[in-house]
Structures are given as C-alpha cells and as structure tokens.
Amino acid sequence: MFRNRSDLKRLNSVPISVLDLVPIYQGGTSADSFRNSLDLAQHVEQWGYNRYWVAEHHNLPGIASSATSIIISHIAAGTSTLRVGSGGIMLPNHSPLIIAEQFGTLATLYPNRIDLGLGRAPGTDPETARALRRNLNHASFPQQIQELQSYFMLTDSQVKAIPGTGLEIPLWLLGSSDYSAVLAGNLGLPFAFASHFSPENTMPAIQAYREAFKPIRQIERPYVMLGVNVVAADTDEEARWLASTLEQQFLELVRGTPGQMKPPANMDDLWNEYEKQAVKRFSNATIVGNPDSVRMQLELFLEQTHADELIIHTNVFNHQSRLKSYEIVARLARRIGAADRR
C-alpha cells in the first residue's frame, strides 16, 4: 500500500476529530445529552480537535441527534473555531432542497465552519423510515447528491436554496461498504468510512475509493477520514471496564433491542458465547487501554490504513470519563498546547 516508510503517517501528523451520537444515558434526559455534547465540544476545541460531527438517527431511545441540523447549530453557537457538521445527514430521508436550505443557513450563521457529510442509510428501522416518507422519493442516491450540489451553485434555475446558493459548503460522503467509497471517488469528494462499526470492510473500501477517485472540483487528491472507537483511561483495567458500556450497545444491536446508554457491567453476566463473538466482530476496530496502549494501537491503525484524518467516537457512561478519554488522545496527538490548530 505504501511506497516507502516516509509515506507512513503518525498520530501527531494527522487531524483528529470527534463523532458524537449525542447519547442518552440511562436515568438521563435529552436535555442532559445536549448539555454534555456542548461541554464536550467546548473542551475538544481547546484541545485542538479539527471537527465535531453529529449523526442522524431516528426512533432510537439512546440517541438524541434526530434533528441533526439543530444540534449542529447548538454546537457551533457554543464554540468559535471548531468545524461542525453532520456525520451524517441521511439524504434519502429528506428533500435535497430542504438540506440545502438548512446547511445554507448554518453556513451563513457560522461562516467557514460547517461540513455536510451525507449517507444513504435510513438511520433507523423500516417502519420509521416510512414515517420519514422515504418511499415518496424515487430518485437514486447519486441523483439526490447531484440535485443537492446544484442548489449550492450559482445558476439560473427557477428553484433556489435561499440561503445556500453560491455558498462553498464542503460535502463529504459517508459509508460502511464500498458503494459509497466508489461513488465518493467518482464525484471527487472526501470520504469518511465507518470503521468503528464496519471494521472488516475498511481496507476494501479505502482501496476502492482511492482507485475510483477523480479530481473534479472540491479536492485534488483522495482524502480519507476513518471512524474509530476509542476508550482511553489511566489503566487498561479501567478502560476495559468503561468500554463495557459500548459492548452493551453492540450487544443490543445484535439482539435488536436498542436502549439508553448503560453503566459499565460484567459482560460475562450478560452475553452468551454466540453474542460475545458477534460483538467482538463489531468491535474489532475498537481501541481500548492506557495512554501507551492507545498510542500504539492508533499508530498501528494509521500504518495499516494511511488515513488522512481520524474521527474518534467515545461512548462511555460517565461524562467526565468521556472527557478524559478525549483529552488523553489529544495529548497523545500533541494537540493540547499547540499554537497552530486546524
């Protein structure tokens, strides 16, 4: 994959960012989640993180980011330099014009700080997807992207996104397979891959994207950002204990019983052997440990993938422990105290 050792990237040489699902904790409320997310964003901005993305999900009792554009505005209003965006907006759920207007408004309120990441999954179950009226939109995903892009261009079209027309809003494609990877490459867009829950597809998708890439307008070369679950703590034992919250979320995914974020627990009391192995397949790209261990695992991940940027997803039950995990990663990447921040 790499021509020589000088091609390899180190943790302190790539941007690091945050993926936040705005989790609802057991015993907490959506209002608590919104306060925690803003607090996290304000901390990671000080620690030199590059961007802060929230993801669209619906009808999930443990995720409060359904009104994604509003949450983006909440985060952007409470920060000043951090790029804020969607990781992502599930475009088939929406009219492209509505998304162009929403993000045109965001980009007008917060100039040069807004990213628009797009996905094609529903972000929910089939019944909720029907309630979102996805069945009324017969355009293909590439056609929807093309329509969305047209609203940001200065054209003589009768229908315009106001605000939105003429704004340079960076578009990204998101994916967990090679479909969006190839599409992102063909469209010349940066690509964010969900390694944090689709680890087995990471390398094929990266290769497919880089091989398909055509420099069209937004970027001149392929740009890959990879999602990775990270739970960092002072000791391996503490990190593994904190990470059992994420393992419970994966277990609920395996069982089809999503719920609110749960406190740490002994997983051997909760799963059977089949479920344990299924969870481990989901969590193959999860990095858990003390600072030295996390550094080593992140460096190895970069060596294997040659990613241009990492977007860190850390779901632990205690908010202060979540903050500390992101702080540890920032220190490992030598972001804290750096004068020059992206």
Polypeptide structure, described:
- By secondary structure, the chain is α/β, with parallel strands linked by helices.
- It has one domain (9-332): Alpha-Beta Barrel (TIM Barrel).
- Helices cover 40% and strands 14% of the residues.
- It is built from 11 helices and 9 strands.
- It has helices spanning 30-46, 68-77, 96-109, 126-131, 141-151, 178-187, 202-212, 236-255, 273-282, 291-305, 319-332; strands spanning 16-20, 51-54, 83-90, 114-119, 171-175, 191-193, 224-232, 287-289, 309-313.
- Strands 1-2-3-4-5-6-7-9 form an 8-stranded parallel beta barrel, surrounded by 7 helices.
- Strand 6 (191-193), helix 7 (202-212) and strand 7 (224-232) form a beta-alpha-beta unit.
- Helix 3 crosses helix 5 and helix 6 packs parallel to helix 7 (202-212).
- The longest helix has 20 residues, at 236-255.
- The model is unreliable at 1-6 and 337-342 (pLDDT under 50).
**What's the number of helices?**
11
Report the CATH architecture. Alpha-Beta Barrel
Major beta-sheet overview: 8 strands, parallel, barrel
Tally the beta strands: 9
CATH classification class: Alpha Beta
Model regions low in confidence, pLDDT < 50 over at least 5 residues: 1-6, 337-342
How large a portion of the residues is in β-strands, by DSSP E?
Answer: 5-15%
Task: Provide the residue-averaged pLDDT.
Answer: 90
- Helical residue percent band: 40-55%
What's the arrangement of strands in the largest beta sheet? 1-2-3-4-5-6-7-9
- CATH homologous superfamily title: Luciferase-like domain
Q: Which fold name fills CATH's third level, the topology?
A: TIM Barrel
From the spread of the alpha carbons, the general shape counts as: globular
The string of secondary-structure elements, in order, is: EHEHEHEHHEHEHEHHEHEH
The separation of the N and C termini measures: 27 Å
Helix vs. strand class = alpha/beta
